[in-house]
Each structure stands twice: as structure tokens, then as C-alpha cells.
Write a structure and sequence with these properties.
Two copies of one chain form a homodimer. By secondary structure, chain A is α+β, with helices and mostly antiparallel strands. In chain A, 22% of the residues lie in helices and 23% in strands. Chain A is globular. Chains A and B meet through helix 6 and strand 8 of A and helix 6 and strand 8 of B.
């Protein structure tokens, strides 16, 4: 079973967190989205979901009270690259049937983080006890979907080969603000040789619902990154002399923005502990 | 009327050849492909065609004897990025009706270059006297089409702003050889800020028949380019600190490969003096 150390997101702990990345052979039992969700629901699975139920969309989580949810949806709407909303509950409902008929947003993630006034008050595998009638759940697309498409075309991803988390950077690119939500865009970085960078731009362009095309390539200093070996989240991976750093908008952005807004109440997923949905990655390709 | 100095392709002469680039306001009379072709046919137009008949595909020319033509078609087939064949005549025919019903390949370019045993034996505005029953004409897509698509999205192109020719480099990337044809790929370079580079990759991907997506970005030393300010053809334009050099396969490649093959006989277009066809650029978009 997975450790729950992923609940700790400090950069230092994540940088050494090869242990937090799943070993594919550990997941023979989790080949279908339903199997993963049932394991979460029963408490049998409390760790990262990368590599589980190959071919199916995984999603990040943001749960907010209704008044904040309206502003947050506006924020997502105007920042679709870092915040692609792939599912959303009715206020008070913990169901998102478009992503899975049986799905219960309170139990079907392996782990949650509960926030009060901007502080984490609980790391837990079940938020049923925290549920309120005014809560709205957002499920946000994640890069696992487009990484699958890249790997299907034999484009090597160093963090996957190294079995570490993708390096992520808080850039100087400002999101479009909406209500109480504003902040800088977090981007994930993958080093690629130029031909693969071009092909990766083409492939990920097909998937706007899971971050889409890169937002930057090649000149990290232009987006406020001084040292590629010092990511703000995730693990460092080196960029070789024959490679370009390629940057995609990252789903950590909404989490970072929510943390900065210090909402009275919020729930997010524990890092790496995603919802596995019944939607196939290929359904999200626009061509 | 245009000067005919474009017939001289030495790098030194081209590097100072702002004079060889057309001024858009000089072409009020050449708004339609037919008008351009008729002006060529009558001898009234003997200079570059850039900027004429906006929206319509322009093409490069290669004419070879039938036995070489078969090998050349094979070469183009296996090197579609630098050598996208958009039209081809039947052996002995000087018609390519798919590109224009009235089109006469012997007269409808503003200028031609006639080659014998690898040497230029004539620069002329009409090759009727050189025509032979065994000749096959190839019309090859050119970058003017995708540049129009880039400019339509307000992506600035420095060589256009400067009114000079795009810089082109003979890279160390080998084309796939076919028969007597082989050689290195020539690429055109356009400096773009990263966001424009990403968008330009998306836009030009839609146009595989006119060179398509870039083949390289960002690291010119990897493709054998030592100094971006010393192009092998065209004019130098600087790459600013906030820009990446973006490289597309170039239609000068087939000309360079034909010159190296030293065929017994060949005809090409004079530099910059393209065929203006009845096909719209947008017809060549695959999506």
C-alpha cells in the first residue's frame, strides 16, 4: 500500500520523494477506473494514482463553498490552460455523473487536504465528515492524460524514466484574475530534444481539456525561472545541452491560487492522489 | 519593373539584396493569379512575385528529363518537408491544369534558370526555346503560403518587416537519398518569441503541402549552423535575446540537390520568381 507521505507538499520533501511515485507493477489490481474508485472508497488505496487504469482521465480536485465557487469558475473560465474544468458538481452534491455514474467526490480520491482560512486542518482519505450543503466540487484535468499521448508516440519523459515527479515552477506569468482569485501560473517542465518539442506541441494541442499546448519553450528566464534545477514543486530533472525545456500550464496553479486566496473553507486532493474517471483520455482529443 | 539581379544567387549578392524584395505597392496590377501569369507570359513581369495575388499559392519549379524526373519524384516523395510537390506535368507537357487551366509552365514564371551538366547556361524569362518532349515539370510548394497564415494571426516576421529575403541555411540534416539525388536539407529561419514559436508550429502544421511544421527550433548548433548571422542564402536577420530561431524545411533544398546531382539538363525558376497558381493557400490547410 502507498505511504501517505505525499500529503506533505513542502518542496524539500517532494524533491527527495522518488518513494512517492508509484511503481507500475504495484497496480495490477487497479486496471479499471471503477476498481480504483472502489479501493479509494473502501480505504484500501490512499496513495498516488499515476499509472493506474491506463487510458482513463485522472482529475485534480477543488471544493469550495458556493459563493467562492462562482468566482472560482470564473477564474477557471478565463484561465483554461492551467485550470481546465472537466467536471463540476451541483451545489451541495457530491456526484459528478459525467465522470462516473457511481462516483462519490467525498470518498473516491485516495487522499484529501482540508483547508480552513488558508491553513491545512486535515489530511484525510475521506471527507464525508466535512461535507456541507453549500459545497461545489471542481474536477480539473491533469497532465497525466497528455503524457500518455506523448509516450504513445515514443517521446521520452525524463521524470517518468527517473520515476520522480515532474518539476513544476511558479512563473512570473500572471493568471487572469477573477473575484478573490488571482496569482501566478505554475508550469510543469519537460526537457525534450527540438524535434520532440515540436512533435509534443502538435500532440498536446489536441488536448485542450488537459492543459493543451505548451505555454513556453526554451527561454526559462523570460518567465521568471532562474534555476531549472530548483523547481518550486516536484523533483528536479536536468536539461541536457541538446534539449529545450518545454513548459505546460500546470494543475497546481488552481491549488496555489486557492491557497493564496485563503478561503474560509476548501478541500483539495492530496498531491498525486487523483480521481480516476470513466472518461477515456482519447475522448478529450479535439482532433 | 523588377531588376533581374535576382538571377545571381551568390550569398554575397543576396545578403545586400533588399532591392530584390518586392514593394507591395508596386503590384496593384497583380491582384489575381491570371494577371500575374499573363504579365509573365507577355514579358511585362520579370521579377520576384512575393506579395502578388495575395491568398494564392505560389510554387517553385524544377524541370528535368524524364529519366531523372522519376528519381526526383522518388526523392520528393521521401522528403516531403523540403520538397512538397503540389503539381507535376505529364512527360513532354508544359501544362499543369490542376494549378491553372491556362497555365504554360514555359512562360508563366517571371524568370528561369537553365542548367546543363550542372552549370547555368542561361537566365531567361521564357524557356519555350529550351523545351523538349522528354521534360517533366515539378511545381513545389513554398513558404509564402504559410507566411501568409502566420501574418494573418499577427505573428511578426522580421525578414518581411525588414523587406529582405528570409535567411536560409544549408544544415547538416541529410535528406533521404533517391537515385542520383541526395544532399543536405536547406532550412529557412524565422526568429520568434516563444509564444509565437508555439503558435507558429500549430499554424504551419496545418499546411503540410507547403513545408508544414518546423523541423527544428532553438538549438542551431545541433543542425550544423555556427553563425545565425551568416546564412547560406537570403539575408541575415538578428535573433533577439527573447527569441528562438525557428527552422522550416526550405524549397531551396531541391534546387541545391539538383545542382549537386549535375544533371545533363534542368530548368529551375529564378530565385524569388515563382509561379502564381489558381489554388488558394487555404485549400492546402489540412484542418
Amino acid at each position: 500500500m502507498m505511504s501517505s507521505t505525499m500529503a506533505n507538499t513542502s518542496t524539500a520533501s517532494l524533491r527527495t520523494a522518488a518513494r512517492s511515485t508509484p511503481q507500475p507493477d504495484a497496480y495490477a489490481a487497479y486496471q479499471t477506473p471503477l476498481a480504483v474508485r472502489l479501493a479509494c472508497r473502501s480505504g484500501a488505496l490512499t496513495g498516488p494514482t499515476a499509472g493506474m487504469a491506463p487510458g482513463y482521465v485522472q482529475g485534480n480536485l477543488a471544493i469550495l463553498p458556493k459563493d467562492l465557487a462562482e468566482e472560482f469558475l470564473r477564474f477557471c473560465h478565463f484561465n483554461p490552460r492551467p485550470c481546465p474544468v472537466i467536471g463540476m458538481s451541483e451545489p451541495g452534491s457530491f456526484k459528478v455523473p459525467t465522470l462516473g455514474e457511481d462516483l462519490d467526490i467525498r470518498t473516491d480520491f485516495p487522499g484529501y487536504r482540508v483547508w480552513q482560512d488558508g491553513e491545512v486542518i486535515a489530511d484525510t482519505a475521506d471527507v464525508t465528515d466535512y461535507w456541507r450543503d453549500d459545497l461545489v466540487a471542481f474536477v480539473i484535468g491533469c497532465s497525466l492524460s497528455f503524457e500518455e499521448a506523448l509516450m504513445a508516440e515514443a517521446i521520452p519523459l525524463r521524470h517518468v524514466e527517473r520515476n520522480v515527479r515532474v518539476p513544476m515552477f511558479r512563473t512570473n506569468v500572471q493568471c487572469v484574475p477573477a473575484g478573490r482569485f488571482s496569482g501566478r501560473m505554475v508550469m510543469s517542465m519537460r526537457p525534450l530534444v527540438p524535434a520532440h518539442a515540436i512533435r509534443a506541441i502538435q500532440i498536446t494541442t489536441r488536448f485542450p481539456a488537459v492543459h493543451g499546448a505548451p505555454v513556453h519553450v526554451g527561454l526559462p528566464e523570460l518567465i521568471g525561472i532562474k534555476d531549472l534545477m530548483q523547481p518550486d514543486y516536484g523533483d528536479a530533472v536536468e536539461v541536457l545541452d541538446n534539449e529545450l525545456p518545454v513548459f505546460w500550464a500546470c494543475g497546481v496553479t488552481p491549488q496555489s491560487v486557492i491557497a493564496e486566496a485563503r478561503p474560509s473553507f476548501a478541500i483539495t486532493h492530496a498531491p498525486g492522489c487523483m480521481l480516476v474517471t470513466d472518461r477515456r483520455n482519447t475522448e478529450f482529443a479535439i482532433l
